[in-house]
Design goal:
- With 127 residues, the protein is α+β, with helices and mostly antiparallel strands.
- The protein is 24% helix and 11% strand.
- The radius of gyration is 19 Å and the shape is extended.
- The model has no long low-confidence stretch (mean pLDDT 83).
Length: 127
């Protein structure tokens, strides 16, 4: 849904938020005027204003999916660092249709009768 619905870009009066070459919402911190509209209008609470401790002036900050200049993992065929290092494999990255199919597979697995629920005792000596 995020890839299809981006109100935050439309309400940014300075043009600090934009769609990058991958279709993600990215930002130019130098253009940000700190109005906070993007964080108010984002239905997913993604952009945040990072206020300076000295001046109190806020500038936008948000995940760039590792596409910032000098750290563009996607352009060299790597996945975002959070996906690569996710110890449980919950975070995934890829083609939208493949991600939707994977989500449906995961939901079906959770709804199946084959799942198991394990309870651990409250034992203190578990290593």
């Amino acid at each position: 849904m995020y890839a299809l619905y981006r109100r935050c870009v439309g309400v940014c009066p300075s043009g600090a938020l934009y769609h990058n070459q991958y279709g993600f919402v990215s930002y130019d911190k130098d253009k940000c005027i700190g109005c906070g509209y993007c964080s108010q209008y984002c239905p997913f609470d993604v952009p945040h204003l990072d206020a300076s401790r000295v001046s109190g002036v806020g500038k936008i900050t948000k995940c760039t999916l590792c596409t910032t200049p000098g750290l563009d993992r996607l352009s060299i065929g790597q996945e975002p660092a959070c996906v690569k290092t996710c110890p449980t494999g919950v975070l995934i990255y890829g083609d939208r249709d493949e991600l939707i199919a994977e989500g449906r597979r995961r939901v079906a697995a959770l709804k199946s009768d084959e799942r198991q629920l394990l309870f651990l005792d409250n034992e203190q000596n578990i290593h």
